[in-house]
Amino acid sequence: MNVRAQATTGETETDQQNQSTLLPPVDIYEDETGFTLTADLPGVSKERLGVKVNGDNLLIEGDVSVPAPQDMELVYAEILASSYRRSFTLSRELDASKIEANLKDGVLKLRIPKAEEARPRKIEIKVG
Amino acid sequence: MNGSLRIPTDMLAEFDRLQQQLRRVFSPSYSSRSIRATGHGEFPPITLGSTPDTVEILAYVPGIDPKSVELSIDKGLLVLAGERQTSLPEGADRINVYAQERFAGPFRRVVSLPEEADPTRVNASYREGFLRVSVGKRESSKPRRIEVQA
Prior knowledge:
The complex is a heterodimer of chains A (128) and B (150). Chain A has one helix at 13-19, and strands at 21-22, 26-31, 34-40, 49-54, 57-63, 73-77, 83-89, 100-104, 107-113. By secondary structure, chain A is mainly beta. The longest helix of chain A is centred in the N-terminal third of the chain and has 7 residues, at 13-19. The termini of chain A are far apart. Chain B is mainly β. Chain B is elongated, with a radius of gyration of 20 Å. Mean pLDDT of chain B is 80; it is low at 36-40. At the A-B interface, strand 2, strand 3, strand 6, strand 7 and strand 9 of A face helix 1, strand 1, strand 2, strand 3 and strand 6 of B.
C-alpha cells in the first residue's frame, strides 16, 4: 500500500458519479406470511434513504455520508460509494402498501407481507 | 464531518473499482430482478485516509454491536475483529432463502499503520454502520513552519 499516493488523476465529475453508485448486498427470505429483505447500507441515514414502490417495482436508494473529517486526504479505498441503489420486482401476491421498513446501524430491514388471500391455508375437504 | 472521497492513484484501489464496475455491468441483478432470484470480497471493506494530525481508518461494518468489536494496536498493526450474525432465521423450516449476499460469521482484518501513527492516541467511534478509528500522529512528524532567522 502506497501511503504517499496523492489524488492527482484527472477524473471528471461524471466519471466519479458513474463509479460511485453501488449495489448493496442483500439477504432475502420468504416465510408463510411474507418476505424479509435485509440490505447493507453503511453511511445512509433515515433522512437520505428512499424506499419506493411503483407498481410491482421496489426501489431502494440512499446517499452515503462518510464520517470522515473534511480535511482528510484519501490514501486507499476498497469502496468508493456515494450512493446505493437497487431494485426488485415484486410478485403479485405481495401487499406493497403494508411494507414495513426499519433502518439501524446501516442495515435496512424490509418486511413485505403477503396479501391475506395469498397466505397458505388448509383446504377443508367436504365429504358428501 | 462529511469529507469527500477523492480518487486515489493507488493500483489496488483502481483494480477494486474496476472489479465493482465489471460486476455491475455483467450482473443480471443490477437491472430490476425478481425478488425470488438467487444471486461477495474481504469483510469489512476499509478506507484509509490522512489529515494533518491523524491517520484515519474507516471500516464498513453495518449491523454489528460496536461493543462486540475487538480493536487492538500492536507493533504498528491495527487489528479489527468481530463477528456478524446472519439475518436469516436459524433452524426455521418453511422458509425459502433467495439471496444470502451479506457477510455473516467471524471476521478479522489487519491494517499496517504508517510510521508516524502514535498508538497511544487512538479514538474509535461507530455510526450508521461505519467504524471510524482515528490515530494521532507523532508531534515530530507533523508539518510545521520553520522560521527563517534574519
